[in-house]
Amino acid sequence: GKQTEQRKDNMIALRHIEKVYETMEKNLTESIILLRNNNPDAVIILQTLYNPYINNSVYKIAGMDVGELIDPFIKRTNEIYTKVSNALPIAFSIADVASGMTGHTEYFYKNWDFHPTQKGHDYMAEIIGDAYISLSKNDSETTAPTTKATIESSDTTVSSTTATTIQTQPTT
C-alpha cells in the first residue's frame, strides 16, 4: 500500500542523490586534471564546505532544524573532496575551513545568508593562507623535479602533473 509506495519513492530519491555525488566526484577529478594539465605550476586550493545553519535555533522550518537536515550532505561533499585529493596526490590542497566554522555562529549572519561575516571571512583567509604557506614550505624543502603521472578519467587517459611548483619571490 502507501508505505510500500513511500519506500519505493525514498529508494529512487536516494539513487538520485547518490548519482549527484558520483557526478560531483567525476567533475571535480576531471576539473583538477584539466587545471593541472593546462598549468602544471598552478597552486590549487579547495576549500571545504561549512554548515552556516547548524547549532542555531534561528534556522527552523516547520519545526525542523535546517542545519541538522543539510549537515549529512555537507559532510558527504567534504568526504568526496578528500577522496579525490587522495586519488590525485599532490594535485591540489584542501583548506579545511569547515571544521573551524561549522557550529560557530559568530562567523555567520542570522538572516539565512550563508555567507560569513567579516569575522568569518578573516578566519577563512587565515586557513586558506596557511594552506598556501604550507604548500610553499613543502615545495621549498624538496628539490625533486616535477613528475608526470597518467590518470584515468572517464574513457580518456590524460597526463597530469602530480607535484606542484610554487614560485616565491623574496620580499625586499
Which features would summarize this protein structure in a list?
disordered C terminus, two-stranded parallel ribbon, two-stranded antiparallel ribbon, 50% helix
Question: Mind explaining what this structure looks like?
Answer:
This protein is α+β, with helices and mostly antiparallel strands. It has 4 helices and 6 strands, in the order H-E-E-E-H-E-H-H-E-E. It has helices at 2-38, 66-87, 98-101, 118-140; strands at 45-47, 60-61, 64-65, 93-95, 148-153, 156-161.
Assembly category: single chain
Q: Which radius of gyration do the C-alpha atoms yield?
A: 20 Å
- Straight-line distance between termini: 76 Å
Could you spell the SSE succession in H and E letters? HEEEHEHHEE
Tertiary shape:
flat
How many distinct beta strands? 6
Helix content: 40-55%
Total DSSP helices = 4
Strand count, sense and barrel status of the largest sheet are: 2 strands, parallel
Range of strand content: 5-15%
| Uncertain parts | 142-172
| Order of strands, widest sheet | 1-4
Mean pLDDT: 80
Tell me the structural class: alpha+beta
Provide the fold topology:
Elements: H1 2-38, E1 45-47, E2 60-61, E3 64-65, H2 66-87, E4 93-95, H3 98-101, H4 118-140, E5 148-153, E6 156-161
Parallel strand pairs: 1-4
Antiparallel strand pairs: 2-3, 5-6
Helix pairs in contact: 1-2
